[in-house]
Amino acid sequence: MNTEYTLQATKRENKGTSNSKKIRKNNGIPAVVYGDKSNNNIILDANEVAKQIKDSGFYSNVIQLKIDKKTVDVILKDLQRDPRKSSITHMDFFAVDKNKAVVVNVPILFINEETCSGVKLGGGKLSHIQTEIEVSCLPKDIPENIQIDVAELEIGHSIHMSEIKMPANVEHAVTVDEEHDSPVVSCYEPKAEKVEEVEVEASADASEETTTEDKKEEPASDSKEENK
């Protein structure tokens, strides 16, 4: 069952950079809601947002946004942060209809990594090529995550989009076929080990060449001794 998220907001009458700075100074976050009958410019409480945004599900699940006396179901579409302080400076939400499918990015949860065949038996390492999947479904069916079991993944192999078992009533938002079937996770042999093997082989070859050259020079020395 999906976690329910709720945010309290107030309408923002004044716009502009100077007004946004005042909002942030008073521990608020300027935000906007798209997709509603009219774009709603709102103000959120920074502390309230900070508490809920720690949960990864906040980024993909439906949020009940209470704007004064009105409640709007929304999903988070974008947020901006101050690069120096990492504090949130602005948020964008999109209003959704409970009866219409939405497209959202859902995080991937890789399971059984510690028992992965390619890692445990082959000495390989896992590469998370993708960390989220774009899906299409009704708001009530948005999953917390998409699970991918890597227990049977062998070294040199990958798990592709077409191999992912999607939750009920959830579909890929993009076409997945033979031409569009990108890998999601792979198990590879660490390059460092390959480099060491090459260096050992090169060293062995160099030793053999040196030994061969020494052997070629020895008969020449014996021949001179005989002529004397």
Give the topology:
Layout: E1 5-11, H1 17-25, E2 28-34, E3 40-45, H2 46-52, E4 63-67, E5 70-81, E6 88-95, E7 102-111, H3 117-120, E8 125-128, E9 132-137, E10 146-149, E11 158-160, E12 171-172, E13 183-188, H4 191-227
Parallel strand pairs: 1-4, 2-6, 7-10
Antiparallel strand pairs: 1-3, 2-3, 4-5, 5-6, 7-9, 8-13, 9-12, 11-13
Structural class: alpha+beta
* Count of extended strands: 13
| Assigned CATH superfamily of the largest domain | Ribosomal Protein L25, Chain P
Q: Counting H and I runs of at least 4 residues, what is the number of helices? A: 4
Q: Would you write up a description of this structure?
A:
- This protein has 228 residues and is of the alpha+beta class.
- The chain folds into 2 domains: 5-95, Ribosomal Protein L25, Chain P (Beta Barrel), CATH 2.40.240.10; 102-189, Ribosomal protein L25, C-terminal domain (RNA Polymerase Alpha Subunit, Chain A, domain 2, Beta Complex).
- 25% of the residues lie in helices and 35% in strands.
- The chain is built from 4 helices and 13 strands.
- The protein has helices spanning 17-25, 46-52, 117-120, 191-227, and strands at residues 5-11, 28-34, 40-45, 63-67, 70-81, 88-95, 102-111, 125-128, 132-137, 146-149, 158-160, 171-172, 183-188.
- The strands form 3 sheets. The chain has a 6-stranded mixed β-barrel.
- A hairpin with a 5-residue loop joins strand 2 and strand 3 (40-45).
- Residues 220-228 have low confidence and may be disordered.
